[in-house]
Amino acid sequence: MAWYVRMSRIAEKQKDKLSKPLRQILYALVGDIEALGPIRGDWPNYSKLADGKHHCHLKKGNPTYVAVWEVLDKNIKLVEVKYVGTHEKAPY
Questions:
Q1: DSSP assignment of 18-83, as one string?
Q2: Of 18, 26, 51, 54, which is least packed with CB atoms within 10 Å of its CB?
Q3: What's the pTM?
Q4: Where does residue 59 rank: exposed (0-12), middle (13-18), buried (19+ CB within 10 A)?
Q5: Other residues' Cβ atoms within 10 Å of the Cβ of residue 89
Q6: Residue 59 lies in domain
Q7: Domain count, the chain
Q8: Tens of each residue's pLDDT in the chain, 92 residues
Q9: What is the largest CA-CA distance in the chain?
Q10: Is-cis flag, bond preceding 44, omega within 30?
Q11: For residue 74, what is the domain's CATH number?
């Protein structure tokens, strides 16, 4: 059974401000989470954070862009992307 990934309202607005190549990288990450689950050790600088949250880098350099997501329900396999943007403003 595949995972369901949704974007928070804040992440939707942040996504719209990203460049097209960064949005495509984000969509690839979401596709991987849907197919393989929230633990994405194959993504750059992936780490598991506290309380079921995870993060990884979408683009290295200056500025570095990251995505932060959280497992909301393991039984129905629901994940929510909480933040997409620069590393400096990331909520972790």
A1: S-HHHHHHHHHHHHHHHHH-S--TTSTT-EE-GGGEEEEEEE-SSS-EEEEEEEEETTTTEEEEEE
A2: 51
A3: 0.92
A4: middle
A5: 10
A6: 4-89
A7: 1
A8: 699 999 999 999 999 999 999 999 999 999 999 999 999 999 999 999 988 899 999 999 899 999 999 999 999 999 999 999 999 888 87
A9: 38
A10: no
A11: 3.30.2310.20
Report d(CA 66, CA 82) in Å as an integer: 11
* Cβ neighbourhood burial of 1 (10 Å; 0-12, 13-18, 19+): exposed
Q: Which residues of 2-28 are buried (b: 16+ CB within 10 A; e: fewer)?
A: ebebebbeebeebbeebeeebeebbee
What is d(CA 55, CA 67) in angstroms, rounded to the nearest whole number? 6
Type and span of the H or E element at 11:
helix 9-17
Question: Residue 19 carries which side chain, given as an amino acid letter?
Answer: S
| Residue 82 contacts residue 70 (beta carbons within 8 Å) | yes
